[in-house]
Every structure is written in C-alpha cells, then in structure tokens.
Write a structure and sequence with these properties.
single chain; two-stranded antiparallel ribbon; 2 strands; ABC1 atypical kinase-like domain-containing protein
Length: 164
C-alpha cells in the first residue's frame, strides 16, 4: 500500500535484466469482498462497460460519481470507445477536457468522502503507481495490462471460490 520511490529499488538481474525490491512492508490490507468488487470494476473499465461501472458505483455508495471511475483510473470518459493504452481521438480529448472542467471541489470532496476506506487505499496506491510508471518513462498501458491480468485472476474460480 505504499509503493513510493523511496520504498522501491531496481536491482540488476542477469537473467531478466532487472527486478524490483520492495523495502517497506508496513501497509498491507486484505480486501476480501472489496477485492472482488475491485476486480469487477477493472473488468468493466477494460471492457468499457458503462452499465457495470454504474452498478459498481451504486455498490460502492457513490452512484452519482461512478461516471468518474474511468476518468480516474484510465484517463477516459465513461462514454469512451477507444482502446485503452492507445491514443485518444481528438473528439474524445475534447470530451475529456470538458469532463474535467465540469468537476468542482465540492464534487471531488463529496466523492472522496463517500468512498469506502478500502477504495481510498486503492486510489492512493494507483496514484503512486501512475507516477512511478511516468517517471520511469514506461507507457501507462503496462499498468492497465497488469490491472487487467490481476482482475482476471481475482475473478477466476481458482483464486476466488466465491466468484462463481
């Protein structure tokens, strides 16, 4: 839960080129049901399923603000039809700018106060990962692909017997 640059070392590995060493293991949290719902959210974000995103927003207690989940996590609007990790068409860039301009501090504050505490941990960690990936000069699609893979694993019956 605390992957900032001071807690991560990159070490040389003769087989794979490098590997990451995590230094601070002070923040861990078992997500249980929220973990499953987070996997469902990422599946909906990757598949651009606006109905499921709205449904999950209701379950998280932030239905009014669920349209901002794609904006926060994927830098896409909820109506986006362009593939994640790829460039945005000019029309979508315009829509994204308008969506961002429509937000005000009251909306942001109300949204953050309405989120379950586990979600705030996820947001914080995602922000740190976004920043690290940017600082390393890697494309954000790496982050999106990792989340997609983790969501698939988290939703699989083998990893989560309650997932159905």
């Amino acid at each position: 839960g605390d992957p900032h640059p001071g807690n991560i070392l990159v070490s040389v590995d003769s087989h794979n080129g490098f590997f990451l060493v995590l230094l601070d293991h002070g923040i861990y949290k078992k997500l249980d049901r929220f973990g499953l719902e987070n996997c469902q959210l990422w599946k909906a974000l990757i598949l651009l399923d606006s109905n499921e995103i709205q449904h999950l927003g209701e379950r998280f207690g932030v239905a009014k603000y669920s349209r901002y989940f794609p904006l926060i996590f994927t830098r896409r609007t909820i109506d986006s039809k362009s593939a994640l990790g790829k460039g945005k068409p000019d029309k979508e860039k315009t829509n994204l700018k308008q969506e961002l301009k429509s937000l005000n501090m009251e909306d942001l504050s109300s949204f953050m106060e309405s989120l379950p505490p586990d979600f705030l941990t996820i947001l914080r960690t995602d922000g740190l990962l976004w920043s690290l990936i940017s600082m390393l000069g890697a494309p954000q699609r790496i982050r999106l692909m990792a989340y997609a893979e983790d969501a698939i694993y988290g939703l699989s019956p083998k990893s989560n017997p309650t997932s159905g």
